[in-house]
Amino acid sequence: MPTPSTITITFNNATFTSSIATIVLAQNTGSFEITSNNFIQLAGSFTFSALNISSNLISFDVASGAAVNGTVQIPAVSTNNSPLLTVSNFAGTATVGWPTGSSGPQLQTLTPGDAITLSDFAS
Q: 91 and 112 in contact (C-beta within 8 Å)?
């Protein structure tokens, strides 16, 4: 298994728009998963009543309209260099950053519910 690399999702003056907000990590053609022997880190202001984590999903039970300002850092591994990430049920600004194998760190703006390809993800 490759060494985990950190994916960082940053919410800036965002709000949750539903009672469940999710971060989904999906394989493109290989496998992509949150590693079980590392820690997901939350920093900033998050209000949720439950947090559920599986090998490819982070789910927050939240109050619709709850504000979120902060980061989620996810150690993940991929056997393919183009995994997919989807963050749902938020409004406002959010970005995702990830390490690459050849072009240095990448940073992209997230659109709620739309999958983004983490091109050249290095793990």
A: yes
Helix or strand or coil: residue 26? strand
- pLDDT tens column, 57-97: 889 899 999 999 999 998 888 776 678 899 999 999 999 99
Among the residue ranges 33-37, 44-48, 70-74, 87-91, the one predicted with the least confidence is 33-37
Please tell me what DSSP assigns to residue 4.
P
DSSP 2: P
In this structure, how many other beta carbons lie within 10 angstroms of the beta carbon of residue 107?
10
CA distance 108 to 98: 9
Residue burial 15-30, b: 16+ Cβ < 10 Å; e: rest: bbbeeebbbbbeebee
Q: Please report the DSSP string for 34-96 in residue order.
A: E-TTS--EEEEE---SEEEE-SSEEEEE--TT-EEEEEEEEEEEESSS--EEEEESEEEEEEE
